[in-house]
Amino acid sequence: DQMLRHLDLMSSLLDKLATKASSESASQTITDAKTVVDTARVAVSVQAQKDYTITVTTETKIRLDAQTKRDQLHKDLMATRKLVIDAKQAVSNAFRLTKSGTKEATPSGQQ
Predict the structure, then answer these.
(1) Mind listing the pLDDT tens digit for each residue in 24-76?
(2) Closest to 43 (Cα-Cα) out of 7, 93, 12
(3) Any residues with CB less than 8 A from the CB of 103 and at least 6 apart, and which?
(4) Residue of 10, 20, 59, 86 with fewest CB within 10 Å of its CB?
(5) Secondary structure letter of residue 61 according to DSSP
(6) Cα–Cα distance between 105 and 111 in angstroms, integer?
(7) Which residue from 81, 9, 14, 13 is spatially nearest to 44, judged by alpha carbons?
(8) Torsion angle of alpha carbons 90, 92, 98, 99, nearest 10°?
(9) 99: helix, coil or strand?
């Protein structure tokens, strides 16, 4: 839910920014950022639907079975989190580019 709230905020910021974009480059960057946000939103929705039910093979392996599922959950959450971070960076890049006019913004924020 928290990731979706962040993505909703990013989408609304991009919508507001789109009204202020004056150059074709800025408009394209905003469109690209919206695509990245939408991709992250789909990934978050898919992740929310996943089930990590622990299947106990034997009583002595319960800890190992639980650890396996926990590791898979952690791996999946980190992959989803990376997509949300990528969306945030794309939105930041769109803001930098729109603010700077026609100059291209780099991922590090230096122009």
Answers:
(1) 888 999 999 999 999 999 999 999 999 999 988 889 999 999 999 999 999 99
(2) 7
(3) 97, 111
(4) 59
(5) G
(6) 5
(7) 81
(8) -160
(9) helix
